[in-house]
Amino acid sequence: MKATIISRTGSLLEELRSAAEAEGYEVAQALLRKGNQPLSSLLADMGGDLLIVDSAGAEPGDDLVTLEALTRTHPSLAVIMLSTSGDANVLIAAMRAGVREVLQSPPKAGELTDALRHVAQRQQAVPSEAGRGRVIAFMSVKPGSGATVLATNLAYLLATAHQKRTALIDLDFVLAEASFFMSDSHGKTNISEVAKQVSRLDGKLLAASMLNVAPNLFLLAAPDGPEEGYGVTAEQMGRVLEVAREHHDFVVIDLVRTPDATVSMKAIDMADFIFVVLEATVPHLRDLKRSLGILRSLDCPDSKLRLIVNRYDKHVAIELSQIEKTIGLKVDYTIPNSFAEVSESLNTGVLLAKAHPKNPVVRGLREIADELVGKPAGSGHSWIGRLLGEQG
Ligand SMILES: Nc1ncnc2c1ncn2[C@@H]1O[C@H](COP(=O)(O)OP(=O)(O)OP(=O)(O)O)[C@@H](O)[C@H]1O
Ligand SMILES: [Mg+2]
């Protein structure tokens, strides 16, 4: 992969060169920018895969106009911009201009390497199938049923074990826990900011708004406060999901528990599957009936629903057959209880599937991931794979 780097400072130019080379880039051009030299005059022979521009000493707005034109004509080019401005407006303008990463100039130790790795991962991870990805929404019937733990770890398995480009969208504007479960770094932006720019939203802007939390796994975080999230309209949500599924194999959504919130309704409407998470107890069964009533009143067909009984222990739980008889739906999956390792993963912020790949909860989720993806040729297709018409 080839890189061009541009800076006004010779020593920084050399630092950028070493960092890019250390990540496997061949530095095709290292250009020292003079005084007021406009960026456009340096980009005449622009090709390759990566451009790192140090904008220190320039008006960031001027460079961004040039970069926007460049990323339009070179859509596969990744741009990393270094800026002395910490202004959030510059960050947003940079995202709009198609810049993938914005760092302080000069960058702090490790930041540039992280940015180079994120960029490389995005360039490698292209959707593996033509057409749109599948949208899978997770809903808990009672607080704490386990929807967020299951959604985040399933997304991780789809992304890493199956190498499927996967987006996790956190629609729980109150707790916003998916973000905490998946990463200790704060997202650059969030769904509310993306919704505000929906008229210009495309794959590039969406990608720039997501946090790359693992290979192939991208998080669109919830806003900092719930009020901000409540401003997102159904129309905006619809467009975000449309773009997300165009650019990912799977879009996993952590829904807020009350499915009648505006954004949840839209997500439910657009979801291919809704995984409803409960425990096999009488109070959960009661709430399950209520949740199903709401889903049905939203015209959500039962054929979309998949029931997961979490923390299942057949010695103490209500019989699955009794649950099925009471609600008239099949229990699709059970996931066992695993208090120590699940708690540890939440305390450390490292996903369970990453920290403990053999954990029984992860084993249960692997089955779901395998079914969603469809088994490799020779082992036959899952019922979900068949339903989606997957080919050999
Ligand atoms: N299979 C499991 N084994 C052990 N503990 C679990 C399991 N699933 C979830 N938990 C624990 O239950 C708690 C709630 O899980 P989680 O936050 O995923 O629930 P939720 O349905 O998203 O809740 P909310 O409705 O509040 O968003 C977490 O502290 C987690 O540690
Ligand atoms: Mg949750």
What does this structure look like?
There is one protein chain. With 392 residues, the chain is of the alpha/beta class. It has two domains: 2-124, Response regulator (Rossmann fold), CATH 3.40.50; 134-387, P-loop containing nucleotide triphosphate hydrolases (Rossmann fold, 3-Layer(aba) Sandwich), CATH 3.40.50. 43% of the residues lie in helices and 19% in strands. The chain has 17 helices and 13 strands. The strands form two sheets. It has an eight-stranded mixed beta sheet with strand order 8-9-7-10-6-11-12-13, with helices on both faces. Strand 1, helix 1 (10-22) and strand 2 form a beta-alpha-beta unit. It is elongated and about 75 Å long. 44% of the residues are buried. Mean pLDDT is 87; it is low at 125-130 and 375-392. Bound molecules: adenosine-5'-triphosphate (ATP) and magnesium ion (MG). Adenosine-5'-triphosphate binds next to helix 5, strand 12 and helix 14. Magnesium ion (MG) is lined by residues 147-148, 172, 175, 177, 254.
Layout: helices, strands, pairs:
Elements: E1 2-7, H1 10-22, E2 26-32, E3 50-54, H2 60-73, E4 78-83, H3 88-96, E5 101-104, H4 111-124, E6 134-140, H5 147-160, E7 166-170, H6 177-182, H7 191-196, H8 203-209, E8 211-214, E9 217-220, H9 226-230, H10 234-247, E10 250-254, H11 262-270, E11 273-278, H12 282-297, E12 305-312, H13 320-327, E13 331-336, H14 339-348, H15 352-355, H16 360-373, H17 383-387
The structure holds adenosine-5'-triphosphate (ATP) and magnesium ion.
Adenosine-5'-triphosphate binds at residues 140, 143-149, 172, 175, 177, 257, 277, 310-311, 335, 337-339, 342-343, 346, 361.
